[in-house]
Amino acid sequence: MSNSNSAKVRVAVLYGGRSAEHSVSCVSAGAIIAHLDPEKYEVIPVGITVDGAWVVGESDPERLRLIDRTMPEVQRREEIRPSLDPAHRGEFHFADGSLYATADVIFPVLHGRFGEDGTIQGMFALSDIPVVGPGVLSSAAGMDKEFTKKLMAAEGLPIGREVILRDRAELTDAEKKLLGLPVFVKPARGGSSIGISKVSSWDDLPAAVELARLNDEKVIVESEIVGAEVECGVLQYPDGRIVASLPAMLRGTEDGEGGFYDFDTKYLDNVVTAEIPAPLDDATIELVQSLAVETFQALACEGLARVDFFVTSNGPVLNEINTMPGFTPISMYPQMFAASGVDYEELLDVLVQQALHRSTT
């Protein structure tokens, strides 16, 4: 692949990966590749297969779209290797040692484990190349719901009740009393609602834990929080400013077959809509935005994040943070910023420039 136009910033867009969110990552990457300004940026597509092979990526974003409920997947192509040597930073080589491309910045559009959890961020830190989004600690803590909540609690932010199951599948009577029914059983380090169950009878808990453990050996059991599902994007500019988007309220999250905001409801069933801005009073909107920024700072994030809430009768309660939120055409993060006056192309420009600026300071 040629790097002939040195005036353009060369952006390596990484996508796919070994997580259960592989296909969502592909769709996100297709949208990003289609919206990076071709006058400013040269895209270097890098795919990672479901079994972890790094390959020459797909340059045609149309091949990375969701079509008729069929999710895309990284196909086996010619393998490449990233350089971890600062003297050859940003380089990707073929197996024979010849150069595929040299990137100026990495955009890891990887959702879930081995991508959004600090592993990729740490790997590229070895070669001193700028990476879009939060760094190692923020990514790792944001991916692990146990430690996300511990850091939020340490900052005095409002969170729900939860119990962590490491080496057991049952709760004690005291824990059941603490949580009440129904509960949500989740992989502690997962996303896109994969492996999540809503449990309304304690008899169903072991099966729900078993399902969650297909994705993560550590399981979190959370009390149901009754309230509107509201999301808020956070964006950091190259000059350090941190801004929150207009929040979105999700409608129809319980209309899918699973009865909650599961994977099919998010990506396939087309039953969820969003109101942007969320139909909340001004004071609540400002509080959601303030809490989103505080959460971003509590985890020492950089670049971007999406913070999810339940807005209850007693105010907003934090649910989770996503340090590399979805960028698919229907994803909330770009939609919220578009409603806030930052279109998709400008959003990507800010993120890439922020990563480049961070590497020079």
Characterise the protein shown here.
The chain is α+β, with helices and mostly antiparallel strands and about 350 residues long. Helix content is about 30%, strand content about 25%. The chain has helices spanning about 20-35, 120-125, 135-145, 145-155, 175-180, 205-215, 265, 280-300, 330-340, 345-360, and strands at about 10-15, 40-50, 55, 80, 90-95, 100, 105-110, 160-165, 185, 195-200, 220-225, 230-235, 240-245, 250, 275, 305-310, 315-320. The strands form four sheets. Strands 12, 13, 14, 15, 16 and 17 form a six-stranded antiparallel β-sheet that branches. It has a four-stranded mixed β-sheet with strand order 3-2-1-7, sandwiched between helices. A four-stranded antiparallel β-sheet has the order 8-11-9-10. The radius of gyration is 20 Å and the shape is globular. The two termini are about 30 Å apart. The model has no long low-confidence stretch (mean pLDDT about 90). Keywords: ATP-binding, Cell shape, Cell wall biogenesis/degradation, Cytoplasm, Ligase, Magnesium, Manganese, Metal-binding, Nucleotide-binding, Peptidoglycan synthesis.
